[in-house]
Design a protein that fits this description.
Layout lengths: L2 E5 L15 E2 L2 E2 H10 L5 E5 L11 E4 L7 H11 L4 E6 L7 H9 L6 E5 L5 E9 L3 H9 L14 E4 L1 H4 L15 H11 L2
Parallel strand pairs: 1-4, 1-6, 4-5, 7-9
Antiparallel strand pairs: 2-3, 6-8, 7-8
Length: 195
């Protein structure tokens, strides 16, 4: 079993409103994400700098570190509060995230501290990844040095990178970690999925 952390710390500047509350299939996107992950994990955590907007959700709420240090701080908070040894992370602006992908990534964890997808361009997808709680010290060290990039601690841990040749059969188009940033992104996605 593993925990799931939904990272909702972005400021949504380009979108102009909180992406977690965009209308997705007749309800807020965050409600859909929480319910999808509650079907696969008994420990779903929502990490945000301000948890007040999420208080009506039936999910454990954890505040980002203060002062804010970006998504790496959210990951640190998630690992610190997780009830399981492993945590799957997803951003709240990934409407097509597939819980089956999380389970598959969990199954790839042998000998690793992190399991990270690599996209078609060879870039890691650190917001849609599986992390072991043992990464906490490496993350704390990176943050103490002023590093905020999600991958800043990767050199200090064992990362199992999953290239397209390994994930393509599960998600041929890499839709699970597709995120939306602008109203145009959102409208395009809605047209694609018929919403």
């Amino acid at each position: 079993m593993y925990s799931v952390a939904i990272l909702a710390g972005g400021q949504s500047r380009r979108m102009g409103r909180n992406k977690a509350f965009l209308d997705w299939k007749g309800r807020p996107l965050i409600v859909d994400l929480v319910e999808r992950f509650q079907a696969i994990s008994d420990d779903v955590i929502l990490i945000a700098p301000n948890v007040k907007p999420f208080q009506t959700l039936r999910v454990r709420l954890v505040s980002d570190p203060s002062p804010p240090v970006g998504p790496l701080g959210g990951l640190w908070a998630a690992l610190l509060s997780a009830r399981h040894e492993w945590v799957f992370t997803a951003a709240c602006d990934m409407p097509l995230v597939d819980p089956r992908m999380a389970q598959w990534m969990f199954e790839q964890r042998a000998g690793a501290d992190a399991v990270v997808l690599v996209d078609e361009q060879g870039r890691p997808e650190p917001l849609h990844a599986m992390y072991r709680v043992s990464c906490l010290n490496a993350i704390a060290s990176a943050l103490a040095c002023g590093q905020r990039a999600m991958i800043a601690f990767y050199p200090a841990v064992r990362v199992r990178y999953l290239p397209p040749s390994e994930w393509r059969s599960l998600d041929p188009e890499g839709r699970s970690w597709r995120n939306i940033n602008t109203p145009k992104d959102w409208e395009q996605l809605l047209q694609e999925v018929g919403g």
